Amino acid sequence: MLTIGKRDASGTTAGEADHEPRVATGEKDGVLGCAFSGIWTTRTVALIDAEMRKIEKRSGFKTLALDLSKIEKMDTAGAWLIDRLVSVFEKKGVQISLQGQSEIASILLDAVGEAVRREPESGPARPPNIVIRALEAVGRRVYEMRDDFLASMNILGATIRGAQMKLGRGHAVNPAAIFNQIDRMGVGAIPVVVLMSAIVGAIVAQQGAYQLSYFGADIFVVDLVGVLILRELGVLMTAIMIAGRSGSAITAEIGSMKMREEVDALKVIGLNPIGVLVFPRLVALVIALPCLTIIANFAALGGGILAAWLYSDIAPAAFIDRLRVAIDLSTIFAGLIKAPFMAMIIGTIASVEGMKVGGSAESLGQHVTASVVKSIFVVIILDGLFAIFYAAIEF
């Protein structure tokens, strides 16, 4: 049979009233003694809080002696109330003496005291000045560049090693995956590459013809278009468009697989994710980008021929005759040699960023953006390094 005790006006039962928290105080010879009794829990500490605050305001003694032997039950709320009293008098320079506490009470008081003292007392720290923040940002970017470089070398090495192991064991590399990626990254990109390259070639020819017309040297617009397109702009514009089109797609595909834990599933069934996901895409880019560069060169020269015909009255036959004099095989190969290296950079950076995607859509968007920005940045840097190298060897 369940018996419910009577409750007084404060809401406590008659049985609970005998166990309410109490504090008995006494002062003698510079020592303030406090004897605690009753139940000190979340439900009861509100009854003693006002009395504890009165004790905290007392002064004129050098030692505070606390007797916890008669505490029947205590939780973190009761321990926090006692610790608050101790903290107030510690700040006043009063010596604290604890006695009679049980093992559980000692553990609670230590835990509560450590948690309370870990909190900052003076509010949040002021942020460093703008110079320190700028130097910190530079340092973080340097470490991120190092980590990205190591991850890129890891992916590149694992890709090459995986291909060697497949060929060495007699397991042929899956050509269907490679041709599928070539179709998506190469054939699918032909319209946009042709359109953009033709427009760029026409703009270069138009601007060159407009400026050279002041000197009566209109024919040299052919030299300008031929050398600039074949050595620099053809491969560079193609690489930038592929970085924005295919690099972002690689990062999004691998990143979404990472989010859905498909990459972990490949590891569980004994497959190398880099060999399955990265290798076909890298091979496809290395094959597709030089082919697209050749197409872009023809499209840009076509746009240049049209612009020169319209603005400088240079007939297409005259343009082609002058082009044979202006360029040679070294001019053509100077641009094509860059294409495989740029393809490796775009595919590797896109794969690294895809592998870094976390479990949220925000992370996917951030890494796709980072993939495109980093790929374009590194491709432009590589083009500049090739230009310096070609000038050094007079190529």
Automatic annotation (TrEMBL):
PROSITE patterns noted in UniProt: STAS
Localization terms from the record: Cell inner membrane
Broad class of the protein's primary localization: membrane
Stored Gene3D superfamilies: STAS domain
Alphabetized InterPro entries for the sequence: ABC_MlaE_roteobac, Permease_MalE, STAS_dom, STAS_dom_sf
Residue ranges of domain STAS in the record: 21-113
UniProt-listed SUPFAM superfamilies: SpoIIaa-like
UniProt keywords, alphabetically: Cell inner membrane, Cell membrane, Membrane, Transmembrane, Transmembrane helix
PANTHER family cross-referenced by the UniProt entry: ABC TRANSPORTER PERMEASE (PTHR30188:SF3), ABC TRANSPORTER PERMEASE PROTEIN-RELATED (PTHR30188)
Protein name, per record: MlaE family lipid ABC transporter permease subunit
Biological source species: Mesorhizobium newzealandense
